[in-house]
Specification:
By secondary structure, this protein is an alpha+beta fold. The protein contains six helices and four strands. The protein is globular and about 45 Å long.
């Protein structure tokens, strides 16, 4: 237990560890839904749940710090990438534009090791847009094909016309 962890409270999981625990359960739910309703329905439900999870994550951040901007979104990415989880290269950061490249993704590596890269794309990569929209309404995000899809890197571009 560290000083930041009060007695009686379990230690916090890293973002990657938390995502892997969630993914194990999501994969089981997805398989059960696909068996009963078909793979298309399972994918539609998974996307809806991931969108809701992204909105909940953004809402938690907004409770702690109501005013958000692209610098705050970049800070979230750095937290997700901490401890070597992501190799991030910042290309541009300004009040209206954020561009960066992900050159290594431990999330993709872990999902591949679990034989769940196809769900990892939906579970992690497709979460980024809904999360950004919930954090910064009006932000537009463009994402290149991803490491999860077999590319060498991912390019993220955000454009924000908000206040």
């Amino acid at each position: 237990m560290t000083e930041a962890e009060p007695a009686g409270r379990p230690p916090r999981l890293s973002p990657l560890d938390r995502r892997l625990v969630e993914m194990e359960l999501a994969a089981l739910f997805n398989a059960a839904i696909a068996e009963r309703y078909g793979p298309e329905a399972a994918l539609e439900i998974l996307r809806a749940v991931v969108g809701r999870a992204a909105a909940c994550s953004a809402a938690e951040i907004l409770r702690r710090q109501p005013k958000q901007g692209l610098a705050d979104l970049w800070a979230v990415w750095q937290t997700l990438g901490g401890e070597g989880r992501l190799d991030l290269e910042l290309l541009e950061l300004g009040p209206r534009d954020l561009r960066f490249r992900v050159r290594r993704c431990a999330y993709a590596e872990a999902y591949r090791a679990m034989n769940l890269a196809d769900l990892g794309l939906e579970f992690s990569c497709r979460r980024d847009g809904p999360f950004a929209q919930a954090l910064l309404p009006g932000v537009e995000m463009r994402q290149s094909p991803t490491i999860m899809e077999g590319r060498e890197s991912c390019l993220f571009e955000y454009r924000y016309e908000g206040p």
